[in-house]
Amino acid sequence: SLSLSLSSSHTLWHANKCSATASTALPNMTTLIVGAGNAAHVAAAYNGASCAVLTTYGDEAKRWRDNMPEAGVSAVVTAKDLGAPTKVQGRPSAVIDGSDAVELANAIMACDSVLMLLPAGFHDGYLRLLGPHLLARAREVREQGRQPLMVCAMPGYALYDVMGRHSMGLRNDAPVPHGMFFACADTLPWACRISEFGREVQVLGTKQATEVAASGGFCETAVQRLNGVLQVPAVSIRLPVLGTLCEQYGFLEATLSNINVHLHAAITFGAFRDWDGCTPFQPPVRLFYQGVDDETAVIMSRMSDEIVATARAIEERTAGRVKLPHVRHIYDALLRLYGGAHGLDATSLRTVVNTNPGYRGLTQPHTEGDAPGTWLPDVHSRYYTEDFPMGLVPIRGLAELAGVPTPQMDAVIRFGERVLPNGGRQWLGEDNRLTGKDVKTSRAPQAIGLGTLEQLLKEWA
C-alpha cells in the first residue's frame, strides 16, 4: 500500500523502497504498467509500490531504474488541478524489461490489471509477449472464483479488442477467455510531459472526462479499476469522470471517438500538406495547437464530419441495433474534455484548440535540419507512425464498410502515405479503397479480412 505524508508545501512523498527479482513475489502489486512514456510515469508515481513497470524498448527499464531516486518517480501536478502545484512520488515495486520469463510471469500473476500506456503500434508485440501469461492468469482467477484480469489500453486506438484477440493467437470468432477482459479508454486521462526520464513528469492538466469500453459486460468493473489506478490516496487531485460506452459495441465507439486522430492528423496535414518531405523550415519551430489557423480548423471539422457521418451510417445500416451516441464532432468532444479549463475560448473550433491551457507551448514534433537553427517535421513521431495507421486509416476502413464518402480523410491519408518514413506507405489503392500493399500495417478491419460491415459486427455478436 502507499505510505504517504503531506508536507506544508503540498508535496507528497512515497517512502517505500522495494525491488523484485525473478524469484521474488510482489505482494503489494495490483497493476502492471506497460510502457515508459509520459503517462506511464504519471501512473507509476500515483501508484507506487502497488504497481510494476514493464518496458522492452531499448534500455528504458535500466535507465528508469538507474535514474529513479529512492523515493521514486515524481509527478508534478499543476495548479489547474489543485490549489497549488503538488508533487506526488511513488516507487514501483519493479521496473522490468521482460527478458526474464520467470520475472515476467511473477508480475502478471501478481496483478489484477494490466494498463497499456504506450503507442498503439506496440500493442501487438506486447500482447504476443504477454499472451501466454495473461491466459495463465485468467485461468487461475477463473479457478479461484476471483474477479477477472483487466487488460486495458489508454487510449485503445482502433478495434483494440479485435486486434488484441488476434495478437494473442485467438481465432476471429473466439471470445475473450473467461477470467479476463479487454478494456480501453477513448483518451489518456492526462496531458503530461516527462521532465527527466525515470525521475519526474509534469501533469499539465487532467481531462474532465473520458469514456471506457470493455468486453464481456465488464464496463462498470473497468471504471472501478481505473478509478483506483488514476487517483492518489489522501490527495484530492481531480479525476476525469469515467463514463461507459455501449456495452456491446463500445470498442467501435472508442475507435470512432479517438480524439488524437481528429486532432493530430488534421493538424499535421494543415501545417505541412505542401511540404516536399526534405526541405527544412526556418526557425522558430511552429506551435502545434496554438499554430492551428482557420484553414486547418476547417480541415479538422470536415474530417470530423465524415467520422460522425460514418457512425450515423452504421446506426442506419443496422436499423438502430448498433447505437453509437458518443461519437461526437471534434468541437463538442473538445468542449466535453476541456470546457471548464481556465482561459479557454469556446468561440470556434480554432479558438478552442488555440487557447486550451493544456496545449500551451507544445511545438510540432521536429528534428534539427542540416543548417543551424533549421528544423524538419519528425515523421518518426507517434503523430505520424501511430495516428495514421492505428487511428485514421482504420476509421477510413469503417467508412468504406458503411458506404460513406471521405474526400477530406482521403486527402489527409494520402499526405501521411507520402511523408511517413522508410519510403512512405500505400494504404489506399488506385481504386481509392483500402486495397494498397501496406494495408496490413494498419488496424483497418480490411487488414484482417473483414470486408463487410456484417463481418465486422460479428466480432461483437
Average of pLDDT: 88
- CA-atom Rg in angstroms: 22 Å
Q: Which range does the strand content fall in?
A: 15-25%
Structural class by sheet pairing and helices: alpha/beta
User: How many helices does DSSP assign?
Assistant: 15
Query: Helicity level, as a percent range?
Result: 25-40%
Could you list the spans in which at least 5 consecutive residues all have pLDDT below 50? 1-24
Q: Please give the number of β-strands.
A: 16
Biggest pleated-sheet summary: 8 strands, mixed
Shape: globular
Strand order, biggest sheet? 7-4-3-8-9-10-13-14
How far from one another are the termini? 40 Å
Walk me through what this model shows.
- This protein has 15 helices and 16 strands.
- It is α/β, with parallel strands linked by helices.
- The strands form 4 sheets. An 8-stranded mixed β-sheet has the order 7-4-3-8-9-10-13-14, with helices on both faces. Strands 6-5-12-11 form a 4-stranded mixed β-sheet, with helices on one face.
- A hairpin with an 8-residue loop joins strand 5 and strand 6.
